[in-house]
Amino acid sequence: MQATAYTYDAQTRSGSVLLDDGTPLPFDAAAFDAGGLRLLRPGQRVRIDVEGEAGGGTETDGRRIVLVTLQTF
Question: How far is CA 6 from the centre of its chain?
Answer without folding.
Answer: 8
